[in-house]
Amino acid sequence: MLPVIELQALEKTYRSGDVEVRAVRGVSLRIERGEFVAIMGSSGSGKSSMMNILGCLDRPTAGTYLLDGVDVSQLDRDRLADIRNEKIGFVFQGFNLLARTSALENVELPMLYGSQRLAAPEVRRRALEALEMVGLGGRADHYPNQLSGGQQQRVAIARALCNRPSLILADEPTGNLDTQTSIEIMGIFQNLNSAGITLVMVTHELDIARYCKRNLIMRDGRILSDQPVAAPLCARVESEKLAAAQAGVLEG
């Protein structure tokens, strides 16, 4: 089976006046179907540039990027837009929900602009199904200002799922959330991964990266370390531990 992601000698160079900045330097990488990978690194390490390329939001300067076996390195802008919509689901630190649009309508949006041209009943069915998957089936008619931060991120995850992508890219998805809610979001990601969805997540939080199956560390545009996580944390167990600890503090 082809890997979801295959990078071969990938390079990304930016120009600032007469200065060249090599953000990604000769990275080769395979991410197989069903993996859950965290990409970490300090500011300037190249992880954001790498994610932009993986999400077909930017082009490499050199090298090859195969997504599901398709070389997307040289595709034109329209085809890249189709690839993003069909194969990739995005989850960001900021939830990026439309304020005057219900949770259901926010989830429906990617399907309305996709190339599949789904009928309205199918769009609604898929959106409701995605909201059920993240535990928000009963909040479909709620607006973002009626939802907590964790619930808004769940809507964003449902939106990423609705076109049934082969890859979900998450950029600091727990960055705006408290500890308990962050663990709950990681639990959703773990459930999706158990269902066979491939996830790649940028995070600067070591404790969050421990919920993944594989950790990459970048520095100066290169992969410094690429290691499997020996015993990934289970979000359900960790959530129960935290709740018990908090209850003990309150009782004390």
Strand content: 25-35%
The top-level CATH class is: Alpha Beta
Overall domain count:
1
Biggest pleated-sheet summary: 6 strands, mixed
Structural class designation: alpha/beta
Shape: globular
Rounded mean pLDDT score: 92
Number of helices: 8
What is the tally of beta strands? 10
How would you describe the overall organization of this protein?
- 37% of the residues lie in helices and 26% in strands.
- The protein contains eight helices and ten strands.
- The N and C termini lie far apart (55 Å).
Task: Offer a quick outline of the entry.
This protein is α/β, with parallel strands linked by helices and about 250 residues long.
Topology:
Layout lengths: L4 E12 L2 E13 L4 E5 L6 H8 L7 E6 L2 E2 L5 H11 E5 L10 H10 L7 H14 L15 H13 L5 E5 L7 H16 L3 E5 L3 H4 L4 E6 L2 E7 L6 H17 L1
Helix pairs in contact: 3-4, 3-5, 4-5, 5-6, 6-8
